[in-house]
Fold Deoxyribose-phosphate aldolase.
Amino acid sequence: MRLHHLLFLVGLFLFASCDSRTEAEKIVDRAIAAHGGDKYENSKIEFDFRNIHYTIFKTENNFEYIREFSDSTGNVVDMLNNEGFVRTVNGAKIDTLSEEWIGKYSRSVNSVAYFAFLPFGLNDASVFKSSMGETEINGEKYDLIRVTFAEEGGGDDFDDVFLYWIGKEDSMIDFIAYSYHTDGGGVRMREVSMVNEVGGIRFQNYLNLKPADETMPVEKMQELYEAGELSLLSEINLENIKVESLNN
């Protein structure tokens, strides 16, 4: 009897250990699986965004984001990875960039990669997730997840706050809202406008919406959206998407 009791307790402990993730983490896990799962970590992704070509690779521990475009200086290649940021023009490394411009370019590259890879990055070690309960938009039910970032490892934008509306039925992210503090700060809400599935990964285009008062708390964005008080600022469209599997 004592042996059976001991085995029972060990079983309970193992079950509790396996089920130790918070509700917010479980919801995000399901969203990552629904959007592409482990294909994110085993693929090189390319796309065009606003006439700039991006190549993105990311795992839990390593990343490399590249953008390429041409301007009056020639062919520009920006690379951001675990080692830092490098810009080359016509193949020559630019060593005269100030810390300010390195920060601006890095944030710009990282922002595009972050949104393109969502929700995969939400399991990074620097991400803190909490559940804000259930809500409803346009007759659809959602789990509302709040995301903040650790200062260490959270990048220059660690004090940004994100909200994600994740479908109760399909675990898809249909809406995103966020507050940011760089470049003057503000708040935005994004609504999915189109979906492209390439290589088993779901890529989403968005309508980028803004309120008249950009000092509004990000938690008010759903209320403003439902009241029709957000205006269209821009469209976030990824084009010419290619996914190359790295499992070959």
Q: What stands out?
A: The two ends are 53 Å apart (CA to CA). Residues 99-117 form the longest helix (19 residues).
